[in-house]
Design a protein that fits this description.
Helix 2 packs antiparallel against helix 3. The protein has ten helices and twelve strands. The model has no long low-confidence stretch (mean pLDDT 97). A five-stranded antiparallel sheet has the order 1-10-3-12-2. The chain has a three-stranded antiparallel sheet with strand order 9-4-11, with no helix packed on it. A two-stranded antiparallel sheet has the order 5-6. The chain is of the alpha+beta class. It has a single domain, classed as Jelly Rolls. Bound molecules: fe (ii) ion.
Length: 368
């Protein structure tokens, strides 16, 4: 059976609307899968394959391009991607970005987050001092050193602390993720991408509420502190708003040793040649490849509807394309406020999905 055609069915669009992601079985032709696997095999130690033709062709030369053109609209063909190859590993003793020991986290160490969030390496000692001291010490420990609280502060993931000069937008944004799977991830604990199914609706609602409250979106906006001083290392990140996390906590949720419950994510079980498309708005995470017999291989793309900024080239990997890859400030013409455009896209998540409009209308009519 193959979904390899140029357009999502009505049913697929309805599923995508509801879940915020959709798996397309065997959508990548075998020859493209084998070419990219061959390229990974030939890689020299430490070589970055993100810009190699064999990798970006997984979108550019596969049915994913026509499918996304129809569902989303035009986007720059990616020139780069994230090569998510993850070796088999065991639970670790280190503090993760959430401020918890990796071995204490449920769900194979998943750290559910929104993309475009700045991440400075987590302090490995339990932090001392006031919350303010911990905050300033943390933001001074990034790759650019101590710049105070500034939009020039960068994370080790090369995402700025704030996107805009006024520090009202603390997340980068785009339209769609594509995860292409190159190995068997049909069993639990093989490093699957995890998603918080349906949480895109809650994130959109939350962004709208933040916007109406004071126009500040993301961490450090209303009801979304950046740092969780209650985490075991006293300096964990709130990667999603706690109010959204709590909406998905139920009887099936697992806890960390401090008793905090974590919403159970859905591991995306795919096999070689499958791909998952997902909304920017969906909280997600990689997970530990604990049970795998080989390295986990997901090739990750980030695409943005060209209409957001027709003059700006999006490279296919950046989660903060309103700034340069390394946080450079880009030039925008008079009257083009990129921060406001991105806020509008975050508050109105279907606006950049041109082929979803009928389904959105039909589904919203059902609820109301
Ligand atoms: Fe991510």
């Amino acid at each position: 059976m193959s979904d390899a055609r140029d357009k999502l069915t009505l049913e697929q669009k309805q599923d995508f609307y509801r879940d915020g992601f959709l798996v397309l079985k065997k959508v990548i032709p075998d020859e493209l899968v084998e070419a990219s696997l061959g390229r990974i095999k030939r890689a020299k130690k430490g070589e970055n394959l993100g810009g190699e033709k064999e990798m970006i062709d997984l979108v550019n030369a596969s049915p994913l391009t026509p499918i996304l053109h129809e569902a989303m609209g035009y986007f720059d063909p990616p020139v780069h991607c994230q090569v998510g190859v993850m070796k088999q590993s065991q639970p670790g003793e280190h503090f993760n970005s959430l401020g918890y020991k990796d071995k204490d986290m449920p769900y194979y160490g998943a750290q559910i987050h929104m993309d475009g969030s700045q991440t400075i390496n987590a302090p490995q000692e339990v932090q001392e001092g006031s919350e303010e001291e911990i905050y300033y010490r943390y933001i001074a420990s990034g790759p650019k050193g101590d710049l105070g609280r500034s939009p020039d502060v960068m994370g080790h993931n090369m995402v700025p602390l704030f996107q805009d000069p006024e520090m009202t937008l603390a997340l980068g944004s785009f339209t769609a993720f594509v995860f292409v799977c190159l190995n068997d991830q049909t069993e639990d604990g093989r490093g699957q991408t995890n998603l918080l199914k349906g949480a895109h609706h809650e994130m959109e609602k939350f962004f709208k509420w933040q916007y109406e409250t004071n126009g500040h979106l993301g961490p450090e906006g209303p009801d979304w502190p950046r740092i969780n001083y209650e985490a075991p290392n006293r300096c964990g990140l709130f990667y999603i708003p706690d109010s959204v996390q709590q909406k998905f906590v139920d009887d099936s949720s697992e806890s960390t040793p401090d008793g905090k419950k974590w919403a159970r994510p859905t591991p995306v079980k795919m096999d070689k040649g499958d791909a998952c498309i997902a909304m920017y708005h969906i909280p997600h995470s990689g997970s530990r490849n604990e049970n795998g017999t080989e390295s986990r291989k997901n090739i990750i793309f980030r695409l943005r509807n060209k209409k957001r900024q027709p003059d700006k080239m999006v490279n296919g990997v950046s989660d903060h394309p309103d700034r340069g890859q390394m946080g450079e400030w880009l030039e925008y013409e008079e009257g083009n406020d990129p921060w406001e455009r991105s806020k509008q896209a975050m508050c109105n998540m279907w606006d950049e999905w041109e082929g979803m409009q009928e389904v959105v209308k039909e589904q919203r009519a059902k609820v109301n």
